[in-house]
Amino acid sequence: MSSMYTSISANKRNSFFITIAITAFLIVLGYFLGVYWGSGYAGVAISFLLALIMSLAAYYSGDKMVLAISRAKRIEKRDYPQLFNVIEELSVAGGLPMPAIYVIDDTAPNAFATGRNPQHASVAITTGLMQKLNRDELQGVMAHELSHVGNRDILYATMVGVLVGSIAMISDFFLRSFFWSGGRRRRSDEKGGGIGAILVIVALALAILAPICAKLLQLAVSRQREYLADASAAMLTRYPEGLASALEKIAGDKEVLEVANRATQHLYIVNPIKPFEKRASSLFSTHPPIGERITRLRAMK
């Protein structure tokens, strides 16, 4: 039991520090690009304003878009009574409101949670997941998804995604304007001489490297939150083997989840993009290695 608490604390701490690092990237990038355009502080303010606008849009409509893209259909208790019973039991045990439940008609086993907070949460499950898992395994998967809800991982992922998206947009805009102008700087900066030239080089390097570094940090956050949800699920069910066995079955299944894509892959309990697919990339993996997750779960007591 103590190992569960240790794992939960470590993953929360790691997620926090990585998110701070991404925020620092946004501030530094905004400042240096702002200096290039005339005002570093204005650059920081514009960066955060862009992030705020994107955050509000994602906060209020992101879940609906994800469910629509995934072709998920909302169901009632009479449609899948066992599934509802499992989720009801876990919701009561975790002190969470009952989420809306959606089903994706696909034989590839997988599931994800979405929504801006526990009061507006949804879980989506493929028909293949219910067909291929036993009750203990299904309970483990649902505990994992409800843990994402309880840990506010959905909001966390949205916030981090918006920060990374803002960095990418700002960098792209700067690079385009820089090359369109032939590398010419504002008149107010031309008087800076050598210092001005250094600022241009720094701004250009940041615009190129910041989106890549921020994306890698975002993926690191995603992997930490998966570890956290695994540990929280084990705490909720008191049976880590259920989730460990489910992860083995889901990862070992060769069927491809057609509705999944790079924009939604991070939401699923197991990366739905299979290693043998052309769209797969280990460097940009949104999930930690399945073997490591299973090992950690089976070490929990």
Write structural notes for this entry:
- This protein has 301 residues and is mainly alpha-helical.
- The protein has two domains: 2-60 and 156-219, no CATH class; 66-153 and 223-298, Metalloproteases ("zincins"), catalytic domain (Zincin-like, 2-Layer Sandwich), CATH 3.30.2010.
- The chain is built from ten helices and four strands.
- Strands 1-2-4-3 form a four-stranded mixed β-sheet, with helices on both faces.
- A hairpin with a 5-residue loop joins strand 3 (111-115) and strand 4.
- Helix 1 crosses helix 2 and helix 5 crosses helix 8.
- The radius of gyration is 22 Å and the shape is elongated.
- The mean pLDDT is 81.
Which tags fit this structure?
single chain; mainly alpha; Zincin-like; four-stranded mixed sheet
Write the layout of secondary structure elements.
Elements: H1 2-37, H2 40-69, E1 73-74, H3 81-94, E2 100-104, E3 111-115, E4 121-126, H4 127-132, H5 135-150, H6 153-180, H7 187-190, H8 193-237, H9 240-252, H10 290-298
Parallel strand pairs: 2-4
Antiparallel strand pairs: 1-2, 3-4
Helix pairs in contact: 1-2, 1-6, 1-8, 2-6, 3-5, 5-8, 5-9, 6-8, 9-10
Described by strand count, sense and barrel closure, the largest sheet is: 4 strands, mixed
Secondary-structure-derived class? mainly alpha
Low-confidence stretches: none
What is the 3D form? elongated
Order of helices and strands: HHEHEEEHHHHHHH
Strand content: 5-15%
What integer is the average pLDDT? Answer: 81
User: Which bin fits the share of residues in helices?
Assistant: 55-70%
